[in-house]
Amino acid sequence: MSWFEEAVFYHIYPLGLTGAPAENPYGEAVHRLRSLEVWIPHIRSLGATALYIGPLFESVGHGYETTDYRRLDTRLGTNEDLADFVRLCHEAGIRVILDAVFNHTGRDFFAFRDIREKREASRYRDWYCGVNFSGNNEFGDGFSYENWGGYDLLAKLNLRNPEVRGYLLDTVRFWKEAFDIDGLRLDAADVLDFDFMRDLRSTVESLGEDLFLMGEVIHGDYARWANDRTLNAVTNYHLHKALYNAHNDRNYFEIAHTVRRQKDMGLLEGARLYNFVDNHDVERIATKLREPAHYLPVHVLLFTLPGIPSVYYGSEFGIQGKKERWSDASLRPCLDLGQLTAGDNPCLQLIRALGRIRESEKALVWGEYRELQLTNTQFAFARGDVIVTVNSAAQEAWFDVGADGAYTGALSGRRAESRGGRLNLQLSANEGEIWIPEGRGRAAFEPVKPVPVHRQPEPAQQHLPERAAGKPYEEMDIGELQAEILAKLAANGPVTERMKREVLENVYKNSLLNWVKSFR
Predict the structure, then answer these.
(1) Which of 41, 89, 92, 310 supports an S-S bond with 9, CB 3.0-4.6 Å?
(2) Which residues contact residue 290 at a Cβ distance below 8 angstroms, ignoring those fewer than 6 apart?
(3) Taking the model in full, what pTM does it have?
(4) Is 56 within 8 Å of 72 (Cβ atoms)?
């Protein structure tokens, strides 16, 4: 058994949470990382046993254009600050994994800078993919190269080059020795070279430590990445989408179908899936949900469905965060923990309760998943001998499931007893519950307050991007590609609000390119 199989993760984007400037002045180190030490007891109070934090290393701006893999970003502090922070987390019982941005570097990384200065004479010209001195790029360097996502700011590394591979694997060894990390989250894992990932897995295992390898994968067959030869787990974007869609559309069949499909792929075995309802790249769950009261059933599902649950910093308080066309700043805010914890917050109370329940009830980690009851607005399933029920309807609902004995609701403290092998369970509107066999688990249950059901004002009509007539798809920006896809959808029939939302929420250029080219 590995530690991460039973983990509950907390996720921090440190440049945002610490209020670091958006652009790196490359000056003296500012010890902002130390300001996060007060968050450590808070993280543990949620029942979280692991922290994913990143990006951390020297970069130009948002952190994913790395300029030095072996130096903490000077906007956050020094390497000593990071080593101390990891040590404090470990003392509190919290494992730490960090971002590993191995698909691309920033243009100020030493190897790319050498190419800019020496051109054909640079010994690093083969460190990057597609370097062509007959071409050009948006910065006017007089050569072209492959990038990530259509951004020349992010130059794609050649992971087939043994020197590049050796440098990155040595970097992992350095991180382990210098900071005593517990694992890596691989940025853009869905475009990483598979041979490199296999070498990385072997390197990690050779360190003699139980290190966790989790990859950012959005689309595709997750079993290609999450297996015994490459990565331990992948980001479960399929479930992420299903969780909020199923509540907004009142269609629990979408969640059930997603879990069934992942079960058929063997992904429910072990810790193959990293589950989340929001992160640093997508809108906050409190913003995405049309009905605020659905915050409760969504999080009950997050903590009880197969996989490793993760909470993105601030979302345990129910804060808002809307993705803007050209900026993710609102998704990555600077927060004052003291101010957030000063009041009585039902969202925080719920997340703390769910963390405690998952920590004490190992059936929610290891128990076999079995679907028990399913309608558009009611969903019941078992994890071993624990029963989970959620109701997204605006009125109460009853569940009738096969079970023997008496059960206690871990969130409400209510008691229910089976008759004739059937268990009848009642849920209020927009409620969720975890039913524990009586005589096991916590001695006393502390009822969780319902999340307020105040509706937010309807958002203003979303401004749709404009088409770029005659421009090749590869030269279009994200907004222009979205407009082109919407136009092609409209040519094929009515475009629903959900279809429109799916297009506008997709901000990945490669994905949009594939989408727009798929039309005939």
Answers:
(1) 310
(2) 247, 248
(3) 0.87
(4) yes
